[in-house]
Amino acid sequence: MLDVTSRKDETTARLAPVLSVENLTTSFRTDSGWKSVVRNMSFDIAPRETVAIVGESGSGKSVTSLSIMRLLQKGASRIEGKIRLGGKDLLSLSDEEMRGVRGKDIAMIFQEPMTSLNPIFPIGNQIAEALTVHQSLTRSQARAEVTRLLEKVRIPNAASRFDEYPHQFSGGMRQRVMIAMALASRPKLLIADEPTTALDVTIQGQILDLIKTLQDEEGMAVLFITHDMGVVAEVSDRTLVMFRGDIVEMGTTDDIFHRGKHPYTRALLAAVP
Ligand code: ADP
Ligand code: MG
Fold first, then answer.
1. Does the beta carbon of 48 lie inside 6 Å of ligand 1?
2. Residue nearest to atom 8 of ligand 1 (CA)
3. What are phi and psi of 12, to 5 degrees?
4. pLDDT tens digits, residue range 85-95?
């Protein structure tokens, strides 16, 4: 078992993990057979903890998150190992049960919020949709809840923006809308896959601050995926360094920064301004 001591709170190490990944190996079908792009990955995330996966483009970060969400195309991909969320063994759930987990227990935000928002519907309706699928709310209750969520992600004049369309929001504001949608189901785990990569540096900082604040308020665990060591330093308690499908180093973020040993970790650190 790995040392899961977090710098946030030493006691989190003794709480049952929210997510536990054991020997995850994900492969894709190729002309010459199955090719693994994530190999033997094991880690867990405690309640309220943020674990970062850092690595260059193509190292297998997104495939890891898509494996946890079971969003890879069946037939073309193979996921081996164990993924546990709370009491559930995700790889043994039916598709129907897994849809329930995706709608309720895990939420995900991505790099480019525009691709996840439908351009022809007002954003208030889209957030309300995320709510009413899982709760039986009346229209006026849903509207009040959407406003509460928009306020929670610090969108100014939240109530008046319900009927606006995605293109009327800036990139940073759209990411806030996506975070509001992700919070709608009160997930146990938030997976953030490069959520700030497409944003200007000052906006990046605001979104990172927002995620940290919301994590404190909501108590969720966060899996934060990034290629940027500067972002890792900002957000994570523990960090996994991934290189071409393998975890090459794992530890508290403080350890990785001050005592990282693997040559690839050292190279990533040398690139931090
Ligand atoms: P990143 O760390 O940049 O998120 P990915 O997890 O997206 O990297 O990709 C890891 C590797 O898996 C890459 O070599 C990529 O080309 C490959 N890959 C990703 N998705 C697929 C797919 N659907 N089919 C085949 N190969 C894939
Ligand atoms: Mg990726």
1. no
2. 58
3. -60, -25
4. 998 999 999 99
Sheet holding 33-45, edge to edge: 33-45, 19-30, 77-85, 88-89
Number of Cβ within a 10 Å radius of residue 90: 23
The two tokens of residue 69 are 């969400």
For 140-149, the pLDDT digits (tens) are 888 999 999 9
Interatomic CA distance for residues 222 and 199, integer angstroms: 20
C-beta of 59 in contact with ligand 1 (< 6 A) = yes
Closest residue to atom 1 of ligand 1, CA basis:
58
Which ligand has the nearest atom to the CA of 53? 1
Ligand nearest to the CA of 111: 2
The tens digit of pLDDT for each residue in 212-235 reads 999 999 999 999 999 999 999 999
- H or E, element range at 181: helix 171-183
ipTM above 0.85, yes or no: yes
Q: Is the CB of 58 under 6 A from ligand 1?
A: yes
Does any ligand 1 atom lie closer than 6 A to the CB of residue 37?
yes
Residue (of 38, 48, 27, 75) closest to 223 by Cα position: 48
Ligand 1, atom nearest to 194 Cα: 4
Strands 33-45 and 221-226: unpaired
Question: Is the predicted pLDDT of residue 120 greater than 50, yes or no?
Answer: yes
Question: What's the one-letter identity of residue 147?
Answer: T
Residues near ion ligand 2 (Cβ under 5 Å): 61-62
